[in-house]
Fold this protein.
Amino acid sequence: MINRVSLFATVLFIISCSQIQPYKITDALQTGSDKGGLVLSASWSDDPSGAKSAAESTSSVTFSYRSLGHSAIKGKVVVPRSKWRKGVDFRPDAPMGEGSIFGLALADGDYEFYRWTVYQGKADIIYNSKAFSIPFTVKQGELSYIGELNLDIFRRENLYGYGIFDKGTLSLGITDSTRERDLGIMSERYPEISSTRINDQYIDFKPVLFSLYSEAPSATLRDTRIIFHNSRNPTLFRYR
């Protein structure tokens, strides 16, 4: 019994070490700091119009990033649903959706966003099966802004009459309105950075469409993967 407890504790320790939580953006401005600052907004928008019945509600969306130089350095930004918890700063122009502003302090180096995850209803967990890459760079002592990262969700009705995730488009961009909104909120949150120059970091990333569908458990699986399964409605998805 003791050995099992020790093994479980060790596994938890390893997992916690692999998820390095970011420092506050103000830490990047401290004298002698080896970090740089990154400002971005992340959001999800949800259009349930493709489903006649009530859609399974999105409870949160996460965007995961990792260092390209150190495999153990990973993190994520979480956009919650304000109905469940705090942390929402704005709402996209969509029937449903939430958005949050983030200020991260990360070690100097190259990184990428490589995964999105949608948590919906009570049990569904949906994520991309084929990794994409949104690269960004953090420079020691500098602050940069990469714009708004958004996952636009469209739902359809399945055989059981429930609105399920059908398609999702991932995009990233900087506009005058997003910059004014995001940097304004960040300066109010951290007055210390209001007088610091924040450089735009334009990233050449074209929107990517992800599609998801439902089939019977006996269906042939090729370039798809089951990410949530029960006896009534297995959910599959593919990248295209």
Summary: The two ends are 47 Å apart (CA to CA).
